[in-house]
Amino acid sequence: MNKRALITGSSTGIGFEYAKYLSKEGWSLDLISQNKARSLESKNKLSYEKAQFHIFDLGKKESINSILDNFETPDLIVANAGIAINGNIGEIKQDEREYFFYLMCGGVIDLIEGFIPKMLDKRNGRIVIISSIGAKTSMPKSSLYSSIKAGIYAYGKSISTELKNKNISVTVSLPGYVRTKAHERVGLDHLIKKVPGWMWINPEQVVLETEVASLKGKSEVIPGKVYKTVKPFLNLNIAVKIWKWITKRN
Question: What is the pLDDT of residues 121-139, one digit of tens each?
Fold first, then answer.
């Protein structure tokens, strides 16, 4: 049976690695990216005839509506699109806050809510939501990012319980620092030098552990042994102070 996956934020990082992983399994892919140049580059790298590449700005409701109106209902949704956000409270403008929230939370909910009736009709499907370890820990100067990721984490965990007996699995993945260009693109490249190497995980490992968890029907996964180990200590005062010191600009 030909299975179809929809992956957002597919041109680089975790999204692209997910596309690579599923292409090796023979999936048909709808790959969504905002950046035309990066989308074309990923198309050339993937070189996969069963992949279709689409350009949408998922921070806008009309993009989500267009996808829901025109795309085939997927067997797997990988909601990965996002952007790193860093800034003191009061520094990020309202229109930016609203955009970021819709991109990584509200729009994800609209996308899933739009496709779920047909997935329920088929009584089959999987949903993967890429959240962040930031959903579970205090992150100074990342209050907006953490709150957005916490919101979509709570949504994913809730619908996982609701859909469990309807043959639709929902898995929320909570990666820590992932070796992608996301930080560099938003001017946080100092983190690449300051954050210790042992705190970084490759996107390939994120995809592997997330997909294994999804296939097992788990509602949550924290990729990487390091983050699994330190999870109980993340909200301790000393952990927050260490994180703040590590990520501080010189």
Answer: 998 899 999 999 888 886 6
